[in-house]
Write a structure and sequence with these properties.
The protein is 59% helix and 15% strand. The protein is of the alpha+beta class. A hairpin with a 7-residue loop joins strand 11 and strand 12. The N and C termini lie far apart (113 Å).
């Protein structure tokens, strides 16, 4: 049956291959069909075994914590287990064929196994790169180079690319030089970004530098690295640097007409970092035409400042707003912040006792600092109450100011209840007489 199938298929395959300029003997076509059958069987087995192995490897993967890169690599390997099994099966068949028959009979399987193995290794390694677009592009380029080498057509491909030229105005280059330059350009940009992130992490650990100086140094380092990478990439592409004069003029015109706000925010960000008026960790209040924003500075970016409010919302405030608007920095020169509480008591209460109880209510809270004891003063004798102000100091405004005021108000309530001190409130008496107007007395 197999012989009959081969006899019926041979003429069609020979005609197709001859149309491509390729001629094979009967034995060669037989081995191609055998290899095709082996590949189809290997794919079926690999899918079945890969699914079983994926179920086995899933529980150990879920126990890995604190190592995101390793977990990402192992998760990618788990998804590609069928491909891995397929490669193992093909290489095993290739080794068996080399032992039982001529090495040339396993040539097709060797190529398929080599291409699949190269794709698997390159795909796994590029998963370590966070930028998915860059990772896929780099992986595709590397696999194309590996495939040309495996198929042993690299010299011919390089010769074709070298002979093909591109001319755009005064720019003249070959396709090979453009591809090399593009690859070098991508690599130097990626290297600059990687070194910038590495330098930022190292500078963040430098305790001798202030937080603002750390951020400024990290941004300056990243900007210098990116500029150097761009110049190196342009040189690799063969771009004439005299063209930058026209480009710089266009950029200047764009800044003057349409990018003034972006440029203003960039300059404002540098000013904020240099004058050390705000830094990561500060608690600020920023006023604007839409209201006030209160929160803790989380991050200083080139264009904006990230402020996390007490309700969890994160505000991205343009740097320019922090320059032109009023900013209250609760921890600029000191982390101590004074809080005021206003209240009143009836004229029947002893003001000396009220002051003592108020100070004890504030001092009993664990967030109130002991270096500056709370004080309580009479502010005025009101119409129906003696009015007081209670002042105390805290050193952690990022933990909230409304919550501590609420706690101390409750403590005052409890102490006033214990000592029979009343808090006055307005009383209204309505006198209704038939046929007369209503008289209201307070």
């Amino acid at each position: 049956m197999l012989d009959q199938l081969i006899n019926n298929t041979l003429p069609a395959l020979q005609n197709l291959l001859s149309a491509w300029g390729i001629s094979f003997s009967r034995t060669g076509i037989v081995w191609i069909l055998i290899h095709l059958f082996i590949v189809l069987i290997s794919i079926s087995i690999a899918r079945y075994l890969g699914a079983i192995l994926q179920e086995k490897i899933d529980p150990p993967l879920r126990k890995i914590h604190g190592r995101p890169r390793l977990l990402r690599l192992l998760a990618a390997f788990k998804r590609r287990l069928p491909v891995f099994v397929f490669c193992v099966l093909l290489w095993a068949v290739v080794l068996v064929l080399k032992q039982v028959t001529w090495p040339s009979h396993g040539f097709t399987l060797t190529i398929i196994a080599s291409l699949t193995t190269a794709w698997l290794i390159i795909n796994l390694l590029t998963k370590l790169i966070r930028n998915q677009l860059f990772a896929k592009t780099l992986g595709f380029l590397i696999w194309c180079i590996a495939a040309l080498n495996i198929l042993q057509v690299m010299p011919d491909a390089l010769e074709v690319l070298q002979k093909t030229s591109v001319e755009i105005g005064s720019f003249h280059s070959t396709v090979l030089e453009i591809l090399k330059g593009g690859l070098i350009f991508c690599l130097v940009i990626w290297l600059a970004l990687y070194l910038g992130r590495f330098g930022e992490r190292q500078l963040s650990k430098a305790e001798d530098l202030s937080p603002s100086l750390r951020v400024l140094s990290a941004k300056f380092l990243k900007a210098i690295l990116i500029v150097i990478a761009l110049l190196a990439g342009m040189a690799a592409l063969g771009i004439n640097f005299t063209a930058l004069t026209v480009f710089s003029g266009a950029v200047g015109l764009g800044i003057g007409f349409g990018l003034q706000k972006i440029f203003s925010n960039l300059i404002s960000g540098v000013i904020l970092l240099m004058d050390k008026s705000i830094k990561p960790g500060d608690v600020i209040t920023v006023g604007s035409n839409i209201g006030e924003t209160f929160g803790k500075i989380n991050y200083l970016a080139a264009r904006y400042v990230s402020v996390v409010a007490r309700d969890g919302r994160e505000y991205l405030i343009p740097n320019e707003d922090l320059i032109i608007n009023q900013v209250i920095n609760w921890s600029f020169s000191s982390d101590l912040v004074r809080q005021d509480i206003y209240f009143g008591t009836s004229y029947d209460s002893d003001p000396y006792l009220v002051r003592e109880l108020a100070c004890k209510a504030a001092a009993g809270h664990d967030r109130v600092v002991t270096s500056k004891p709370p004080v309580c003063h009479i502010t005025e004798f009101g119409d129906s109450s003696i009015n007081f102000i209670l002042r105390f100091w805290i050193k952690d405004p990022e933990a909230g100011v409304t919550n501590i005021k609420g706690d101390i108000f409750l403590s005052l309530w409890d102490k006033f209840k214990e000592n029979d001190i009343k808090i006055p409130y307005p009383h209204r008496q309505l006198l209704l007489e038939q046929g007369k107007t209503i008289d209201v007395k307070e």
